[in-house]
Amino acid sequence: MIENDIDLQPHNTLAISAHSAFFARVETLEQLREALAFARDRSLPILPLGGGSNIVLTGDYPGLVIQVDLRGFSIRSDNSGHILEAAAGENWHRIVMATVQGELGGLENLALIPGKIGAAPIQNIGAYGVELCDRFVSLQAMEIASGELRNFAAKDCSFSYRDSVFKGKLRDKYIITQVNLCLPKKWQAHIDYPALSQYVAGQNWNVDRLTPSQVAQAVIDIRNSKLPLPDKIPNAGSFFKNPIVDTHSYLNLKAEHPDLVAFAAGDCWKLAAGWLIDRAGWRGVRRDAVGVHELQALVLVNPGRGAGAEVTRLAEDIAEDVHAKFGVSLEPEPRYYP
Ligand code: FAD
Ligand code: NAP
After folding, report:
1. Exposed e or buried b for every residue in 67-78, given b needs 16+ CB within 10 A?
2. How far is the CA of 69 from the centre of ligand 1 (A)?
3. Which one of 155, 227, 265, 314 is least enclosed by Cβ atoms within 10 Å?
4. Which atom of ligand 1 is nearest to 176's Cα?
5. What is the pLDDT at residue 1?
6. What is the CA(22)–ligand 2 centre distance, in A?
7. Which residues line ligand 1 (CB under 6 A)?
8. What domains can be seen in the chain, in order of their start residue?
9. Ligand 1 center to residue 194 CA distance, Å?
10. Mean pLDDT in each 10-residue stretch from start to end of the chain (338 residues)?
């Protein structure tokens, strides 16, 4: 079951070639427990892997990569709503499409996000104003140190903007094995993002009677029109988080750059990182194997299948330049390994 010296290039959407000392694909909880014991006996670090769409491999991985391939999902209804329970290895988009095809609303804004449902809570995935935590009920995870299963309710996960306890205090401590969501019985379309409302306005649809399938179709069409498909142009989606700044910093920037794209976020302001990178002149820049996507400056691409170091050097140069030009720090969204 455990393989040696595996090239991870097919297992990450940036298509970076890097070798893992050990690799295991697990389909059952027992196999997962055995893989954890193997790593424990040899004091190996562990990298739980879903679809590899939010990682950057900066070199060979000296430990055990565990590809979580637990499968199966079900949907049932109770008084609270439609309860969706899915094993961690289920493809996220396939689950979204299964719900909208059954005319169940709630996940449609999150259509076409690559990866597995087991990784979705890690950064509390979000798109077009909806986040995983809006539908989240609980998850089950196996503790890496003991192999024991534990349930986490929403309050245990400390979800926030593209963040959760699994990126912080509990980083590298658990492998998520199952995710449970609840879709509302009374569904309402969320189409307030300009791209989405403009798309809907351009269709011959009755906006008062939108269906989850229509919204999903809108999201899919918009995303396909501006985001590179990883199979065609390797990438890890948005490379940086949108920075959150205080009102004072926002007002100073806005005075200097009246067309700054920013949104109120509680007492602070969320700046569109893509706008900052674009305005700093990086959109469409190509540097050897890597570059910045010409339609969306927030997406770094790796068409030449360069090494992780090329990607991280480009990211560092962009962040440094944006800081020099706007005084704003950019933080990478994907996690770097090792
Ligand atoms: P991986 O990349 O395999 O893993 C990501 C992290 O989670 C790693 O640290 C890994 O160790 C950990 N992990 C994975 N599985 C488990 C598990 N079972 N238990 C514990 N830890 C685990 N993200 C958004 O939020 N919104 C978007 O709209 C969006 N769009 C994207 C578009 C493109 C084209 C791409 C390439 C990426 C996009 N992403 C987006 C980022 C990414 O798809 C999500 O973060 C997704 O949830 C990652 O899933 P994955 O299975 O590929 O995770
Ligand atoms: P967009 O629609 O061009 O918008 C640019 C930025 O403005 C986004 O980052 C978005 O923030 C913000 N924004 C737009 N309208 C907003 C509103 N009404 N309220 C608050 N914030 C608003 O963005 P895009 O790049 O095409 O992406 C569309 C959606 O897909 C976004 O939600 C984005 O996060 C998501 N996406 C994520 C990834 C990833 O890898 N994380 C990759 C592709 C797309 P938010 O990002 O906070 O939503």
Report:
1. bbbbeebebeee
2. 14
3. 155
4. 19
5. 82
6. 36
7. 13, 47-55, 68, 88, 113-116, 118-120, 122-123, 125-127, 175-176, 227, 230, 235-237, 335
8. 2-68 (3.30.43.10), 73-183 (3.30.465.10), 235-337 (3.90.78.10)
9. 25
10. 96 98 98 98 98 98 98 95 98 98 97 98 97 98 97 98 96 97 96 95 91 97 95 97 97 97 96 98 97 97 98 98 98 97
Residue 273 has what pLDDT?
A: 98
What one-character-per-residue DSSP string does 241-304 give?
PPPEE-HHHHHHHHHH-TT--EEEETTEEEE-HHHHHHHTT-TT-EETTEEE-SS-TTEEE-TT
Residue listed under structure tokens 């990126």? 167
d(CA 205, CA 217) in angstroms, rounded, equals: 12
238 is annotated as an active-site residue: yes
Alpha-helical runs (H) found in the chain: 29-41, 92-101, 154-157, 194-201, 212-226, 247-256, 273-279, 308-326
Atom nearest to 192 CA in ligand 2: 18
Give nearest CA residue, ligand 2 atom 12. 272
Task: Report whether the peptide linkage leading into residue 212 is cis, meaning its omega lies within 30 degrees of zero.
Answer: no
CA distance 80 to 180: 13
Residue 209 in 3-state DSSP?
helix
- C-alpha separations of 7 from 12, 93, 165, 185, 241 in Å: 10, 26, 30, 45, 28
CA 280 vs CA 211, 228, 288, 334: distances in Å:
40, 21, 20, 22
Element (H, E) at 328: none
Which amino acid appears at position 311 of this protein?
V
For this structure, is 162 an active site residue? yes
pLDDT of 207: 87
The count of residues in the chain is 338
Residue 11 CA, closest ligand 1 atom number: 3
Instruction: State how far Cα 259 lies from the chain centre.
Output: 28
Q: Can you state the angle between helices 212-226 and 92-101, rounded to 10 degrees?
A: 140
Which residue's alpha carbon is at the smallest distance from atom 3 of ligand 2?
195
